Amino acid sequence: EGKLYLVATPIGNLQDMTFRAVEVLRQASVIAAEDTRQTWKLLNHFEMEGPRLISYHEHNKPKAEKEILELLRQGQTVALVTDAGTPAISDPGEDLVRAVIDSGFPVISIPGACAAITALVASGLPTRQFSFVGFLPRERKHRIKELAYWKRRTETLIFYEAPHRIRETVEDLLAELGNRHISAARELTKRYEEFARGTLEEFKQLLDEQPAKGEYVLVVAGCSPEEAEVEEDVWWRGLSVSDHVD
Ligand code: SAM
């Protein structure tokens, strides 16, 4: 019977590939990859020359999805991988998983590296409750609107960002959330892995001295419960201001 495997791959250090991930990729009839060149490198490293590769990325999703469903109907096993980390986490996969479930085929998740969790656990910020925000919208107006929502949340917030936008995002976080604690994880699992822990203002200053290089996850403290109450109050009063006569 056809099955879809979601296979997590390393986010830098190739040793983070799991034994099970190697085994599943070896045995899959077809590997659907976000970028086939990138995946070839991984396959070569683990000396897997056999598997057939097809591409599944943001821009060919509907067509590739049909192809994958057809393979599953033929009884083949398909393994989905992205360039790095866990598929469907700020990466293609979500739509395919839904389509495969709707078509009645099993979806099997092979766990492994995920930058968000890797950054969170070493952040020093509360891990009991957190929200994965991922990438903020590109357009400023939408970013600010989204941050206005997260501002009232008390759990730890996890952001992804492209290297050339880190500076701008940190400025927006500071302006919209206030001077909270941040743990910025850079180049996780790689040679120059680094954590910058402090306040958003301190991190902004650090970026002035040494501009952002490499990949970052930004882990930001949630709103304090007291602040959340004040926010709630302001919100409530704002809504009912016309009811107050005194
Ligand atoms: N699917 C991936 C995962 O499971 O983490 C995320 C892919 S997303 C397109 C890429 C973003 O993840 C980067 O912009 C960065 O924010 C974060 N990221 C990925 N690898 C990283 C690393 N080694 N160190 C720090 N951040 C990383």
UniProtKB/TrEMBL annotation:
Entry keyword annotation includes Methyltransferase: yes
Catalyzed reactions: cytidine(1402) in 16S rRNA + S-adenosyl-L-methionine = 2'-O-methylcytidine(1402) in 16S rRNA + S-adenosyl-L-homocysteine + H(+)
Domain (Tetrapyrrole methylase) ranges: 3-203
EC number: 2.1.1.198
Superkingdom of the source species: Bacteria
Any GO MF annotation of the entry: rRNA (cytosine-2'-O-)-methyltransferase activity
Keywords: Cytoplasm, Methyltransferase, rRNA processing, S-adenosyl-L-methionine, Transferase
Coiled coil: none
Compartments in which it is found: Cytoplasm
Top-rank EC class of the record's enzyme: transferase
A Gene Ontology term for the protein's cellular component: cytoplasm
Role of this protein: Catalyzes the 2'-O-methylation of the ribose of cytidine 1402 (C1402) in 16S rRNA.
Family of the protein in this entry: Belongs to the methyltransferase superfamily. RsmI family.
Identification of the protein by name: Ribosomal RNA small subunit methyltransferase I
Gene: rsmI
